[in-house]
Design a protein that fits this description.
With 262 residues, this protein is mostly beta strands. It contains two helices and 27 strands. The chain has a ten-stranded parallel β-sheet, with helices on one face. The chain has a nine-stranded parallel β-sheet with strand order 4-7-10-13-16-19-22-25-27. The mean pLDDT is 96.
């Protein structure tokens, strides 16, 4: 019985990736090199050692599911997007297994959708969303077991960060930094992180609403005095669920990274 492939709203071809089938492309990156603007890539179940780099074009990369498809890389982040102008990436777990400072997912100045994926084991943050033209939508993903924070938004980015679960990261679940950075952070769950659920610092701003930050080692949310959360810090606990963190719901401090020596 033929596998049911996802429809392609762009109207182009669907290129199939399957390392076990000689009729298919062996790696996602090879299929992407041969894909035209309106084509999509479908990745069947399997574990693929690959580095996916997409620049200055739209992308549609669909995996069979984040529990079925893993793309890992030893010599850099497995997914790097630069000025990607649209499309969607979904249904894939991205795992960094090297020893240098890389993230699992890098998104620079892009406007695509990343959904139902997993980002794990980055030496830096698991996902970095950055650049003044970054308007990506990052939704419904799992971000876990990264050596710094789960999701880090900085350098003027204004993405939508919604309905993700960020857990077991070594620093924060979600962190926001820099003047002009202003993501929408809504309906995320940050739990089991080794510092606090969320951090806004160094002039970073964000809409922070309907999130759950529970069971982190420090606070629910940390902000610096120059950060610009909406609502204001004193109202964060009423707009979000920040209960059951041992140090409390939120704190405003000018030394948010003191306990990790920064």
């Amino acid at each position: 019985m033929d596998e049911l492939l996802p429809s392609n709203p762009f109207g182009g071809r669907t290129l199939i990736v399957d390392t076990t089938d000689p009729r298919c492309y062996p790696l996602p990156s090879i299929a992407l090199r041969e894909a035209a603007e309106h084509d999509q890539i479908y990745v069947r179940s399997g574990i693929y050692e690959d580095k996916i780099f997409v620049s200055d074009r739209p992308v549609r990369l669909i995996g069979a599911g984040r529990d079925q498809v893993q793309v890992f890389c030893r010599r850099g982040g497995p997914l790097y997007l630069q000025r990607v102008s649209g499309g969607r990436i979904s249904g894939i777990a991205f795992r960094y297994v090297g020893s240098d400072q890389h993230s699992a997912i890098n998104v620079l100045d892009s406007t695509c959708v990343i959904s139902d994926c997993r980002a794990m084991e980055g030496i830096l943050s698991g996902v970095v969303l950055y650049g003044s033209e970054c308007r990506a939508t990052f939704s419904g993903n799992e971000v876990c077991r990264n050596r710094e924070s789960g999701i880090f938004v900085f350098a003027g980015a204004q993405p939508r960060v919604a309905d993700n679960r960020c857990f077991d990261n070594h620093h924060f679940g979600i962190a926001v930094r820099d003047q002009g950075t202003y993501p929408d952070i809504v309906r995320n769950q940050c739990d089991g992180n080794m510092l606090s659920g969320m951090l806004l610092f160094h002039h970073g701003g964000a809409l922070v609403a309907d999130n759950i930050c529970r069971g982190n080692q420090h606070w629910g949310v940390v902000t610096t005095p120059d950060a610009r959360p909406n609502p204001a810090p004193s109202e964060l606990a009423s707009a979000n669920d920040l209960m059951r963190n041992p140090r409390g719901a939120y704190v405003v401090t000018d030394q948010p990274l003191e306990e990790i020596g920064r």
